[in-house]
Each structure stands twice: as structure tokens, then as C-alpha cells.
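User: quick one
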Amino acid sequence: EVQLMESGGGLVQPGGSLRLSCAASGFTFSQNWMNWVRQAPGMGLEWVANINPDGSAEFYADSVKGRFTISRDNAKNSLSLQMSSLRDEDTAVYYCARGVAYSLDYWGQGILVIVSS
Amino acid sequence: DVVMTQSPLPLPVTLGQPASFSCRSSRNLAHSDGNTYLSWFQQGPGQSPRRLIYQVSNRDSGVPDRFSGSGSGTEFTLKISRVEAEDVGVYHCMQSSHWPPTFGQGTKLEIK
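Assistant: Done. Structure below.
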């Protein structure tokens, strides 16, 4: 069974940093693109970033480019999102999601990030 | 970016009756490889999204056959043939034919 479990969320002040992690199990992690998607309170879904299977290519939404860094450790079946220069508008539930054939087939339960002073 | 517009907002339905969700894109979603990458997700209250449909009309494993997807180009539809109580939640469409992937704002299914 595919499982994705996010961790590392919490309350952070504007301008601060936070690192999210996603532990993957139940599939061969090193064979899939992995994504981060977020959902601000009461809002729709927004794709944030993704990374290719071997970690050699990363892509970002314009809203986070230069502030967020996605990475992965295939030996540990782990995906990360390093977030810096956080803004109020980054407040959201962050989901990691497995990519397959240009879609997102499995999602984690999500982790809440609140940016507030 | 491709803008995805969903309607109606929200969608009140009587149990046992059909429901239809519309999703329109600002650009033709036909990919250069011949496929159309339009997915539908269901998000129950307090839950994470669950994919129902991929590539317009392919149902995911375990998804009841009362769910069906159709469409092409810029117009897409998700239909539930007979709504059940467990179907309440928000339904999102997503395009991934063009970078970056983008979502509609979601349509909330409510029971009358």
C-alpha cells in the first residue's frame, strides 16, 4: 500500500524558514516524480514544486521560486521542501503527492504551515 | 498559466440523483504526445485529495463506476450517476498537459 506521511509543519514568523519532510513507503520511491501541492485555508489546490526520480531536475511555481527548495533522498525514501523567506500567503496545508504519467495518484494527509507574527 | 474554471459553485444534489461537474480550461489540453492530461480529485471533509479520474476518462482502481469523466479540448465533465452520502466534498480538476500544472477552484457537492 502506497503511503506518504508529511511532517515538519508548524507556526513560523514572516521571513522565517521551515523544512517539511515526506516519508514514502509501499512503492519504489526512486522511480517516481514527487510533488508538493498546497492548499490555503478555504481555497483551492496550488502546485508548488516537483522533482524527477533521480533528483537531478527540479521545477517550481513562480510564487515560490527562489525561496523554496525541493529535494529527495532515494536511499531513505524521503522527500523534503526547504522553505525560506516565508510570507503570510504561504500559510497552507502542504501535501506531498506521487507523480505518475503527468498526474498525481497518491497524496499524503497533509501538514499545516502557519506564517504569522 | 492555464486557467481552470469549475462550475457550479456549489452543487446541491438530492441523494440518488445524478450530479455533473464542469471544468473549462483557457487552453486546449491536448498534449503533443496525443494524450490529454486532465484529472479529477475528490476531497472529503477534512481529508486529503483522492484521485478519481486521470487522462479525462480513466477511472482509478477502487473508484465506483457511478463516477465517469468525459470531454476534450477545453471542456471537461465529471458525472456521478447516482449521488450517495459518502460523495460529499469538494471536487477538483487539474490539468498537467501544460507547465505548470494548474487546478480549478473546486466545486463543493452538497446534499439537499
